[in-house]
Amino acid sequence: MVEDKTQSAKKMDVRYVANLARLNLTDAEAEQFQSQLDVIVDYFNQLRSLDVDGVEPMAHATPIQNVFREDQVRPGLDREVVLKNAPQHSTDLIMVPTIVE
Question: What is the pLDDT confidence band of residue 3, given thresholds at 50, 70 and 90?
Answer without folding.
Answer: very low
